[in-house]
Amino acid sequence: MDQYRVAPGDEVELGRWDPDELSAFSGGKKQARKLFADMVERIAELQHVMWAEDKHKLLVVIQAMDTGGKDSTIRSVFSGVNPQGVRVANFKAPTSVELEHDYLWRVHPHTPGKGEIAVFNRSHYEDVLIVRVLGLAPEERWRKRYGHIREFEKLLTDEGTTIVKLYLHISKEEQAKRLQERLDTPHKLWKFNKSDLDHRALWDDYMEAFEVMLAETSTDYAPWYVLRRASKTLSSSSAPG
Prior knowledge:
The protein is of the alpha/beta class.
């Protein structure tokens, strides 16, 4: 996985990361699916141990553009685990109550307890992504948040939480295909939202925001991994989310 990891201090140019890259799988999709199935089984085994020990905590953070595969990745990767030990939090637009507090106030209660796995489908990183791109806070405020987030994650890791952060990388062309697929497929139509097109129009701004996010907040204790869209092929039953 080291080839997908963003090293602390690295500058990130997502245009140089090929979303179709599969060099880690010399055997192609067949090998990838076999390895994936084995890992799903292994994750289930390790979760039982983790739950029984009641000592370790795991936080998985997933970020991506719309249609990047967040939902399907969570369904596939955690398909073998005991639901009692896994909690998925989805951070949408903050409520009026949440807006009365600092932006991390709503996040901390969803972090994992001992023996638990917590998965963030979107996360505290929305406050340096959509907030930045749409100008929902002045630059002098959101610029400080990279430091806040690094310290927040350091707190969690110092207290025993292992953090793994995944950015699911797709191209603008691939996103167009997936949006069209939602329109053309009746059982996927519910996932289409007109606001997706508004965000798509700001693609370059989002890419810049993701690049800065990855560069500023990938640390030794909470690294970012840039994963390619090929993850869609690992589970034939999953649909991009």
